[in-house]
Amino acid sequence: MRKIPAELTERYAAEGWWTEETVGDLLTRGLAAAPDTEFRVHSAARPWEGTFRDVEAVARRLAGGLRERGVGPGDAVAFQLPNWMEAAAVFWASALLGAAVVPIVHFYGRKEVGYILDTVRPRVFVTAERFGRLEFRPDLCADVPVVGVVGRDFDALLGDEPLTESLPADPTAPALIAFTSGTTRDPKGVVHSHRTLGHETRQLAASYPPDRGRQLTAAPVGHFIGMVNAFLIPVLDGTPVHLTDVWDPAGALRLMREHQLHIGGGAPYYVTSLLDHPDFTAEHLRYLRYAGLGGSSVPAAVTTRLAGLGIRVFRAYGSTEHPSITSSRHDAPEPKRLFTDGTALPGVEIRLAEDGEILSRGPDLCLGYTDPALTARAFDEDGWYRTGDLGALDEDGYLTITGRKADLIIRGGENISALEVEEVLLAMPGVAEAAVVAAPDARLGEHAAGFLRMLPGHPLPGLDAMRAHFERAGLARQKWPEELHQVAEFPRTASGKVQKFRLRQDIAVGT
């Protein structure tokens, strides 16, 4: 793990950012305070409804059963499940045991799951027999001592005697190992302690609007932000949990209307896919009161569109490694909310390197990666994390993300920001989403290639129409895309980010 300077450790403890409370302690306290809070899964495959008390009963019996099998503090418990009740039970049980939970996104395939299990060597693996692309493969977990499959033998893991209290654990020890594919090929194992995860939960909960309504969580609970929003913040706040195991805009719109559920934001795709759906009506706007956007780049074209509909937009910036770096408050001045990614959150520090790369550190910054080489490259001895993102700070300390170092297109020696080009493409009629990547160029090394998802009934614009649009926008000619491709859907990470390396691969093979 990375070296954390003693000065930072002392400061975070003195300021109350880091406490001696474990995640198990947080859950025990929160569940006892609001046991009758609603917990519901909206699913065609495995619907469920009950209360926190009901889920806690399963979690404590599971913890008791795993304890009988020798699982305890310091062990790893992995699960690959959709947004089902059993995912909450496994997560809560792991925390009560003081184990490190390893959530795996339910649509990860054989290669990713095999890599994660081989890296972590968990004592326990819980999964589903089949769901979408998820398929139980006994060969992948042949070396895992305890395996449970929901719908088949999961109940056999439940002990007769529930674990009544959370087991003592070191708050500095790993509580979570979250694997994120990001925009790279191999998943990266990000390690968070009880202290970093606890601070993130409290900080994120405090940043949400108090009148945000009953939230629908569609982000996969196998991903960091979906997990925190589904299984930790509601327990801290005593607010209902409503999960859905697939992202279907039509289904989400129906749930919003039938159950008065709100969509609070996330990656822009989650919100725009609702607005673009033919079933969307003005009635749904009452359940889109706020849109806290993050998880991927947030185009100004999206924020201004939402604001024009009366939705109060605010942006945030973070990653699995450092979940909450900056955010605009929901009551900040509109230009700051719409066009910047906010200011540093309490306890967090940011600065820009000479090349514009954002460096951050704070009490919710992870301990490092499961791969020591990645840890050595990403963190320095003073506790700063090299985010790989490029940004600019205004006179009020508001940060604006300008791109990723990996997203720079170097055309004839000149740097082009993919984000800048994407903003212009999004302003074209009929364009729902845009992504720009570097394409090989025999003369100039690289040039910009645009990928567009069009709204229904709108054809892909021709290059001449695109050039005329960029001419009117006033963008320098060398930044204009030199090829356009249409996609029905973008390849995405669990948080909704477009996997640009796959778009570059498509160009390389000529598809």
Give structural notes.
By secondary structure, this protein is α/β, with parallel strands linked by helices. Among the domains are: about 20-195, 3-Layer(aba) Sandwich (Rossmann fold), CATH 3.40.50.12780; about 410-510, ANL, C-terminal domain (GMP Synthetase, Chain A, domain 3). The protein contains 16 helices and 27 strands. Strands 13-14-15-16-17 form a five-stranded mixed β-sheet. It has a four-stranded mixed β-sheet with strand order 2-1-12-11, with helices on both faces. Helix 11 links the parallel strand 14 (about 290-295) and strand 15 (about 310-315). It is globular, with a radius of gyration of 23 Å.
Looking at this protein, list some descriptive labels:
511 residues, alpha/beta, Rossmann fold, GMP Synthetase, Chain A, domain 3, 5-stranded mixed β-sheet, 4-stranded mixed β-sheet, 16 helices
Question: Mind sketching the topology for me?
Answer:
Blueprint: H1 6-14, H2 23-33, E1 38-42, E2 48-51, H3 52-68, E3 76-80, H4 85-97, E4 100-103, H5 110-120, E5 124-128, E6 130-131, E7 134-135, E8 146-150, E9 174-180, E10 188-193, H6 194-207, E11 216-217, H7 224-231, H8 233-237, E12 241-244, H9 249-259, E13 265-266, H10 268-275, E14 290-293, H11 300-308, E15 312-317, E16 326-327, H12 334-339, E17 343-344, E18 349-352, E19 357-361, E20 368-369, H13 372-378, E21 385-393, E22 399-404, E23 408-411, E24 414-417, H14 418-426, E25 431-441, E26 445-454, H15 463-473, E27 483-486, H16 500-509
Parallel strand pairs: 1-12, 3-4, 3-5, 5-8, 11-12, 13-14, 14-15, 26-27
Antiparallel strand pairs: 1-2, 6-7, 9-10, 10-20, 15-16, 16-17, 18-19, 19-21, 21-22, 23-24, 25-26
Helix pairs in contact: 2-4, 3-4
